[in-house]
Amino acid sequence: MLVVLTVAAVTGLIGWFVGHEMGTASNKAQGVATPVSSTATGTTTAQPVNEQVAAGGHDFVQFACAQCHGEQGQGGVSPDVPALTGAGNELTVAQLEHIINHGLGESANPTKPYMPVWGEVVSNQQVSDLVAYIRAGLPAVAGAEPPLVPTDQGAAVAGAALYGKYGCINCHGPNGLGGVPNPQSPDETIPPLSGADFFSEFNTDAKIKEIIRTGSVLGSAPIVSMPHWGGILSDDQLNALVTYIKTLKTD
Questions:
Q1: Cβ pair 174, 160 in contact under 8 A
Q2: What is the pTM of this model?
Q3: Which residues lie closer than 8 Å to 180 by C-beta, 6 or more apart?
Q4: Closest Cα partner for 218 from 171, 177, 174?
Q5: Assign residue 175 a region: left if phi > 0, alpha if psi is -120 to 50, beta otherwise?
Q6: Which residues fall within 8 angstroms of residue 102, CB to CB, at 6 or more apart?
Q7: How far apart are CA 217 and CA 228, in angstroms?
Q8: Rounded to whole angstroms, how far apart are CA atoms 93 and 73?
Q9: What are the residue ranges of helices labelled H in the chain?
Q10: Is there a contact between 121 and 180 (Cβ–Cβ < 8 Å)?
């Protein structure tokens, strides 16, 4: 759903997103179950939630929201990315939908992450589910956990796991085959990370690593742009992704 906001509202959203201190949200009034923290272990136990909130929790992992906003939106990944633990109380449904669909801000500094455009990748139902999850206080959802990244099976295996964990697969497809529509971009699709054209243009490790690190900001919504990962991924993680990409089809 495309939500039209006034200039003042959008300005307010940007101000909230880039520098807001947020508290822990609660949605008990809607009868949504919330997680219970164990003081003995410091862990959070998943409790039953309604189906839409559960779907949103899985979407939060699938689309790598947790890799920037922290697990269950608790922050701590980058000082440039806010926690979301108070967003359900402080932003309206329309505002949350707008941020997910249209992104928020751009940055020329590859170490400064920004909220990318998801509108051409995430469905309306998934956006609604994500909003429901945020407004429920981002509870722990059973099974909604990012994949583990092996550390003792080589860089290619680690890179393959990172490719899923950080959501690369959502835009560039399994095995980097591409094909995800991006109608407003020059070639109307999100490019693959495999094949002769890709490896002709990105013919060195350094070039592949740099495009992951710096991204490719093509414009504002509804154009899906490659966010830069330089402020999120470590150098070792970038190298592992490059190693994995180099195992993909080259013709």
A1: no
A2: 0.80
A3: 120, 121, 170, 171, 172, 173, 189, 190, 224
A4: 171
A5: left
A6: 117, 119, 220, 221, 222
A7: 8
A8: 17
A9: 7-19, 51-62, 65-69, 87-90, 93-102, 124-135, 155-165, 168-172, 195-201, 205-214, 235-245
A10: yes
Pairing between strand 36-37 and 44-45?
A: antiparallel
The token duo for 215 is 């991204």
Using CA atoms, how far apart are residues 122 and 171, in angstroms rounded to an integer? 10
Q: Who contacts 116 (Cβ-Cβ below 8 Å, separation ≥6)?
A: 103, 224, 225, 226, 227
Q: Are 63 and 55 in contact (CB under 8 A)?
A: no
Roughly how many angstroms between the first and final C-alpha of the chain, as a whole number? 39
Q: Which two structure tokens, joined as six digits, stand for 182?
A: 């991006």
pLDDT in tens, 117-175: 898 899 999 999 999 999 999 999 999 999 999 999 999 999 999 999 999 999 999 99
Tokens standing for residue 12: 């307010």
